[in-house]
Fold this protein.
Amino acid sequence: MRREFSLRNTIFIRLVTTFVLIMLPIILLGVYIYNWGIRTASEDISKTAVSQISVYLSDLENEIERMKLLQYGLLEDSDLNKLSIAWETMDDIGRTEKIQSVLNRIFSLQNSSKYIYNVSVHIRPISKTLSSLNGAGRFEEERYRTIRTEFGESGTKLIEWKGDLYLSAAKLSAANEKNPLFTIEIELDNRKLKQALQQFNTYPDSSTVLFLGRSGFAIGSGSANGMAESEKERLAGIPVGGSDTLQLADRRYFVSHAYSDRLDMSIYRFIPEQIVRKPLDKFYKWAWLFASGALAIIAVYALSTYKFIHKPLLKLVKGFRRLENGDLDQTIAHDANDEFRYIYTRFNQMVVNLRMLIDQAYKQKIMAQRAELKQLQSQINPHFLYNSFFILNTMAKTGDTERIEQFTTMLGEYFQFVTRNASDEVTLDQEIRHARMYAEIQEMRFSRRIRVRFDELPAELEPVKVPRLIVQPIIENAFEHSLEKMARGGLIVIRFEREAGWASIVVEDNGNRLSESDLRRISQMLSQEDESSETTGIVNIHRRIAITFGEGSGLQASRGDLGGLKVKIRVPLGEGEILV
């Protein structure tokens, strides 16, 4: 039996795999160093970015706290309180002086910080609004009622209204009315805040965005400004004081996050990912050069191993396979003066010795097998001849001259098939036609007591080569030993089966004379390999088929579904390598 070698089992693949496994730790070390460099650079940039925006956020907290203190100080201004309480008792000159005094305080508060855009005081009792931008004007009731916090509220929370940020403080009346006497409103300058954020955009295409609480208010500068809502939601996953990489629009950013609890404000700094990797570009090139060099080394090793080891071994394996197929005229040449030259020389010498041994031993064995087959066939043919004469004698005694003529014609055709061809093998189609002829002869003898039913022989099984006279003796055995004494209802069925690589001819009868001991005896006789044992009947057929086709072929006996003996004749499909 030929043994197939799969690619994964070759020495070449094993050598290359071993070399790759040796190189793998070096390659993995290079990958680790590269990733470590990326991670270290990312962490350094992250720490720097977080530190910068955290410092800015802390300064902004202090600045807004200072504004709040000035705002609370303005709440206690005596002139502002007199305007809201004693307006009716004051003359026009007094009113004008107090208004101007409050406006001066408002101007001073506005100029105290670059982040203040406007300071407004909404005085409800006198229905006036004093503004650092617009001076004294009509009372802005909507802003008075909307932008307002309770006096004394802790913290420096910012209020967002119509896209702007405000700080608000209110002065309650002595009567604890629901509406305060006046409110002081500081409007922050969004343009100045955006300019302050712009200072962090030190890298090309970088950006910084400020978010206030959960209101969705945002001030941004740079390429990441104007993000979609879905992108803003993804920012919530970045930890406070940490960094992460996010895909925004068509670009990946390295995003750092700082948060102020006092202001309920977050600042996100966006740095393009390629900026982080830029310091490692040279290292990246060296990494690719290293990887290319490693692959080149593996390729050179694989090619040299294939040329100097695998290819000579493959030539030797092919030589052995040709030898298995019977090619004894081959020689293997090898020019290089190495170990394979010695192996090839010994192989060539082995082939020469095999040719000599086959002439002396193998051919003699073949001749002995042929002689044994001829002997076995000679045992079968006379056996049928004796039975034929017995049938003819019976017909002559009964005076059935018409059937004698028919019988002798069929008998002549039968012996013509047996003697017209000296070949040891025939097609299965010829063997089955011969068996049908024999069955018809026997049916003439037993009249209506025994019937023989042949299934249709499949067309693909017709050309299968089989030894001569393997089916007819099995049918004869059924007539003589199982059904001969049955008064009526005897039945022999011949059918055909096909399985992977094999064809089977099944001969089964409905005889009632087969005991379990008889069945065991038949099975034991078929399983014996002793050449000195009896070689007649189904045993010699089994030996003929086994000698012809080798292991797996032959006869199998069992009890059939009809109740009698079931014999399965098993032969290989296809051309079937005939040994003799």
Q: What stands out?
A: The chain has 14 helices and 18 strands.
